Request: fold
Amino acid sequence: MWWERWRIAVMLAPTLLIIVVLFFGSLGYGFIQSLGYQPNIGNYSISLDAYSTVMFSERYSEQFWRGLRLTFFVSLASTAIAAGLAIACALLLRQTFVGKRVATFLFQLNLPVPHLVIAIGIIFLFSNSGLLARAAAQMGWISAPSDFPVLVRDTEGISIILAYLWKEIPFFGIIVLAILQSVGEDYEDLARSLGANGWQRFRYVILPLIMPGLLSSSIIVFAFTFGTYEVPKLLGVRFPEMLPVMALEFFLNPDLNARAEGMALSMIIAVIVLALVVVYMWISDRAIRQT
Amino acid sequence: MTHVVLQKLNKVYPGTTQAAVQDMHLDIPSGQLVALLGPSGCGKTTTLKMIAGLIHPSSGDITFDGASVLPIPAERRGAVMVFQNYLLFPYMSVGQNVGFGLKMRGVPQKTINQKVIEMLELVKLPNIANRRPKQLSGGQQQRVALARALITAPKVLLLDEPLSNLDAHLRDEMRELILSIQRQLGVTMIFVTHDQEEAVLLANQIALIFEGVLQQYAPPDVFYRQPISERAARFFGGVNFIAGTRRGDRVTTALGDFVFNPAGKDSAPEGAVTLTIRPEQIVLQPADTRNSIAGRIRARIYVGTYTRYKIVLNDGSEIEATRPGDVGSLEEGDAVRLAFPEDRIWVVAQR
Amino acid sequence: MSRVKRILFYAAVVGVVLALVLPIITFFINAFAFRWFYPQFVPNEWSLQAWERIGLIPREGQRTLEGWWRLLSSGSDVINALGTSLALGGLVTVLSVIIGLPAARALGLYRFRFKRLVEFMILAPTIVPVIAFVLGLNINFIRWGFSGTLLGVAVVHLVPVMPYVVLTLSGVFANYNPEFEEQARTLGAGPLRTFWYITLPSIFPGLVVAALFAFLVSWSQYLLTFLIGAGRVITIPMLLFAQASGGNNAVTAAMSLIFIAPAVLTLLLSARYLSGEASAVGGFGRI
Reply:
């Protein structure tokens, strides 16, 4: 019967239709447009002009390379710091103690809070009239708002990193906690009885056990922080500007020729993220073959 | 070669009132293989982990060769555990797994490699140092776990259900391996199990534990001949229990009087007792009528190497007897006489 | 643990938790503060002014049943946006579950050729940033005339939503025994009744989690709504973003609280469900 044969294909079809048409189709269409193919403004030729304009033209090259560097820096720093702190938090929270449920709940609280809201919270907290500046003033550490270090809308992307930390520490933390919970304490007990001290148990037992989960969630976090628009738009400066913000600004430019440049930027972001995923899959494939 | 003594050991987990382990007193001479046996949740694993140093006792003491080990943390105590599910580190090769304990002690890699080869030969798995744990069968993983524990030359080896995850034929193999290592190295071994068969197969001495309390500590055969209580007897497969009153070497029951050999007279006081006899010790259709009663066969169950008979007695109670093979012509519904040889009868105090 | 160690331990836990919830605390202070001048650490005066300004609470003296009703029916920006956000989230939830259920079943129960490829394709939108595909999408949607309609925006929200719905549900189906359905069929239940009495109850908890995800992911979309809604579909995050980039702090804080309410509520209700479920957590992380 045809149904038996095509059953699985029919079941998958609606979901794949959405993904293929809207997601992959748009990616492909964006790619074509980035090559300058824009029939609506009568441009049918294909070239790499948009890419070279964005990357090498006198007008944009500095903006692009500084922006790329900032984006990389922010993503790497957010991912690495969040992962490190999250491990510490997870090790803390997996102990048994009075109030563990409440502590774990509050620890997860930022998880479902949208990035946009956390970014606003960072402003309320770290701006020079924010809660921390007020606390510093109360303590007598600063006398005027301008004495407070510039942490929001700074050129180094510090406030952007802070926003990501607040959001991603619980994310990593819950994943690490879940792994530790499912692994249990037997491996550590065993290592202990074989003579491993506290540091050795962390280094040779806990770390290798959480590494696979930590790596794959690092990829997710890195990709996310690399491509998000809202947070750098709210917390960033005009120069240097993170790539996603730059891409949208090109795109929304009334000059329709700038569209191709915007598309080119979004393609560059996609390629970097995809390259990262490929490298990750290659590494984890090798790791799987080894074990 | 370590003499392990548990003295009045207690463990009460925080937030509970019932002691997980209560006044445990156990003397394990050097080079013995002792089983801590009991149903799950009886405190046997807690006891094992207290010896390992992974759980701290609430009170009492543990000594190795006379010296208390309580102040010594698990990683320096020399009591190594082998877990039931082996717990080979999945991200390490077999060799790295076996060498783990030496690496933690900062032994040079060259020496480690040497010892790893030795240990793998000891557990009869040469040339697998470069494999991954996933590539090994359950029995092989068990041996690697054993090698990993032995490489540190532990004073005491602690095993958690060492045979329970293995098939019947692997059990024999593993049993022989453990016993031969035991003979070769003379290391004191303590293992926990809920399976009396596993305990009987391996141990020189069995410590039977119910609800955190040590019931009986004796060689395996004693649990069959002279169990301390009806419950202990049931745990070892006893099924025949008859209530009665003991006077001297005579027990009066609803079915009549039984005389028993005074060898068991210490086990129960005068007065209310329970008489017990193992099914395989009951004589069917005896030559004389001493110590015998009448019954009727309700069911005959042929098991292959022996046959089980369920026999209804005069007072309506039921008793089970077995005979080797399929000898005789007893059928369901037949009237039978059964005799309890007096040196096979055992009496325990009624609860 | 020794006494000193215990105290240090609790100090660390309290420190970590307090630091993490600090941004949320600032919302409560800002939203109810009145004339909170620098360098006051805690406002001297509190008020509901911000809530009156966004039209969620009637002005003083008008907090009667009639006043509330007038307020609700007046259709302030925030109330309209709330309605749009809720309608959009509901639509996306229903669509995504109906579309994703069969696919999740196929992925959870069967092995077939190209399964890895299909999984990869469905998961791709969780890794590739919205900015990378939304620009191409925008142009096509304008061409197809979908742009600026609620349905159009809902369909586009399906792209980031589908992976989580399919992932959550296929996990449910991976632990599902279809022989229960066969048993029901042999006992005389037709396909519909089999679905209603057998399939649905067994996957229900997972279905609830998937639906919550779908709703929350849709609820918190900004960029997709902004570009595809073409200024005609105004949701809460759109208003909030505009406020945050140069509005009044108290109003921004009040709106933020409204914006995070469903998410925090969900977490409260499902905290037990989610702890330990990495795929579920993954969904939250992307909001």
The first helix of chain B runs from residue 44 to 52.
